[in-house]
Design brief:
With 149 residues, the protein is α/β, with parallel strands linked by helices. It has a domain of 98 residues: Ribosomal protein L13 (Ribosomal Protein L13p, Chain: A), CATH 3.90.1180.10. 32% of the residues lie in helices and 17% in strands. It has 6 helices and 6 strands, in the order αβαβαββαααββ. The strands form 2 sheets. It has a 4-stranded parallel β-sheet, with helices on one face. Strand 3 and strand 4 form a beta hairpin. Helix 2 packs across helix 5 and helix 4 crosses helix 5.
């Protein structure tokens, strides 16, 4: 008996595309299910060191919601690596200006750190409205299990 490890070529051939409508969903719960799909943990051929996940297209990112008081209390930080280069943005402001970044940031935090996680993040496409340019792919509608509207 030997353990099966999926190769990179097999993973690329078996990749599927999912469409997620984020309208009215909570950010963290939605991000955990998206990260689960992008990582490939829902497949029986999951291999931890290979990018074997599927692609996810998220629409209506501007209509997500935060639980509790996170719109005013949650702060996103970034630093330019220069003295005095710390920038902070509240979640409500980021949701108004760049709603795509809210979901991207949440999913990015749930993926592995390093090169593998960066390659997995390329399988995520987030759009603020309901329009997207991925009509040529055979998109399967994905309804999150643990998220309620």
């Amino acid at each position: 008996m030997s353990t099966y490890f999926q190769s990179k070529e097999d993973a690329e051939q078996n990749a599927r595309w999912y469409l997620v409508d984020a309208a009215g969903l909570t950010v963290g719960r939605l991000a955990s299910e998206i990260a689960h799909i992008i990582r490939g943990k829902h497949k029986p051929t999951f291999t931890p060191h290979v990018n074997c996940g599927d692609c996810v297209v998220v629409i209506n990112a501007e209509k997500v919601k935060f639980s509790g008081n996170k719109l005013e209390g949650k702060i996103y930080f970034s630093h330019s690596q220069f003295p005095g280069g710390l920038k902070s943005v509240k979640a409500g402001d980021m949701l108004n200006k760049h709603p795509e970044r809210v979901i991207e940031h949440a999913v990015h935090g749930m993926l592995p750190k390093g090169n593998l996680g960066h390659r997995m993040l390329r399988n995520l496409r987030v759009y603020a409205g309901s329009e997207h340019p991925h009509g040529a792919q055979k998109l399967e509608v994905f309804t999150p299990k643990y998220v309620t509207r």
